[in-house]
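#onboarding

Welcome to the new folks! Below is a worked example of what a typical request in this channel looks like: someone posts a single protein sequence, and someone else replies with the predicted structure as tokens. Don't worry about understanding the tokens yet, we'll cover that in week two.

Example request:
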Amino acid sequence: MIRIILAWSVAAVFAIPVIIQEQSMRNPIKVLQQSAMTLKRTWGEGLIGYLGFSAGSLVIFVGSLLPLLLAGVAACLFKSVLVILIAGVLWVLGLLLMAYVSSVAGYVYRCALYKYATEGVVPEPYNRDLLDMAWKVKKSS
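Example response:
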């Protein structure tokens, strides 16, 4: 089951950029095929950059637990439920904001990668080295 989910996630990496760039393409199966073929043709099977966004989000999430823990300690010391309630609400709002910003940044980056993979164009503000590092560059045979 995990392999199916992972394969689906990998195949769908460029699904939104394909939909944006190839507006005439309406078939979802064709969109996934185009996405998977672009990834395989350009970067092979390396997923370093794709996993990097997820790992970055995980680090931010784990780091956000420390202030919440400190608020819990403060709530216990001052015997105030209000402190932990306010901290909890702020923490959830912060996580929602972080998830939104991270998601948008990831899609913008994937669109830039797709444009680079299909057209060879390096969109601003990225550079060729940064886009080449996103996934392991596949060696030409």
